[in-house]
Design a protein that fits this description.
With 200 residues, the protein is an all-alpha fold. The chain folds into 2 domains: 41 residues, Orthogonal Bundle (Arc Repressor Mutant, subunit A), CATH 1.10.10.60; 135 residues, Tetracycline Repressor, domain 2, CATH 1.10.357.10. It is 70% helix and 0% strand. 28% of the residues are buried.
C-alpha cells in the first residue's frame, strides 16, 4: 500500500478534527499538528480553512460512493434505474461519516455559511443533477411526463430520506433495518413513477 501523501495526511487530519471538534473550533495550526506537517505545508495545498473543508466534503463523498460503485444500468424500466439511484442515496445517508458531516454543517452553517455551500456542491447537488438529467431524458423519450426535472429530483430524494433520515440525524431513533430501507425504497419509487406516468 502506497504511503499517504502530505496532502492526504492534511485532509485526513482535517476530517478527523472538523468532524470531532467542529469547524469553528479547529484551527489550521491544530490540523498541521494532527497531520504531523508544518503549517506552511498545509497552506501550500489549501488556501484557507474554507477550501480545506471543501476538500473534506469531496473526500467524504468519495467514501460514500463506495456504496454504489457502478453506474445505474441502462434499463428501459425507470423503476429499476430509480431503485439503483435510491439504494445509493439511502445507503449513503445512513453511513456514520455522512451523519457526522450533516451534524457539523447543521451546527455551524449559520456562523460559517461557506460550509453549507461546500457540502451542497460536493454531494447533494451532484446527486440531484444526476437524477434530474435522467428524468429529463425520460420526459424527452416520452417514458414519463416530467414537467420540472430538477424539482422532481428533489422530491424523489425527499421521499427516500424523510421516513428515517431526520429521525436518525437528531438521534431520535435507530438506523432503519435493511427490510425497512427496502420497503421505503419500493414504495417511494412506485409512488413516484406512477405519479409521472404519461396519460394514455
Amino acid at each position: 500500500m502506497k504511503p499517504a501523501t502530505k496532502r492526504e495526511q492534511v485532509v485526513a487530519a482535517a476530517r478527523k478534527l472538523f468532524l470531532g471538534a467542529g469547524y469553528g473550533a479547529t484551527s489550521m495550526d491544530a490540523i498541521a499538528a494532527e497531520a504531523n506537517v508544518s503549517k506552511r505545508t498545509v497552506y501550500s495545498h489549501f488556501q484557507n480553512k474554507e477550501t480545506l473543508f471543501a476538500a473534506i466534503m469531496v473526500d467524504v463523498c468519495n467514501i460514500l460512493s463506495d456504496s454504489n460503485p457502478n453506474e445505474p444500468s441502462a434499463s428501459d424500466n425507470p423503476e429499476i434505474v430509480l431503485k439503483q439511484f435510491g439504494l445509493y442515496i439511502i445507503k449513503s445517508a445512513f453511513k456514520p461519516e455522512a451523519l457526522d458531516v450533516f451534524r457539523v454543517v447543521l451546527a455551524e452553517s449559520s456562523a460559517f455559511p461557506e460550509l453549507g455551500k461546500a457540502f451542497w456542491d460536493a454531494g447533494p447537488d451532484v446527486m440531484k443533477n444526476d437524477i434530474a438529467e435522467y428524468l429529463k431524458d425520460l420526459d424527452h423519450r416520452g417514458v414519463l411526463n416530467v414537467k420540472n426535472p430538477v424539482l422532481s429530483a428533489f422530491q424523489f430524494i425527499g421521499m427516500l430520506k424523510w421516513p428515517y433520515h431526520m429521525r436518525r440525524l437528531f438521534g431520535a431513533g435507530n438506523a432503519p433495518t435493511d427490510l425497512e430501507m427496502e420497503e421505503s425504497l419500493d414504495i417511494a419509487v412506485s409512488t413516484f413513477v406512477n405519479g409521472l406516468k404519461t396519460k394514455p
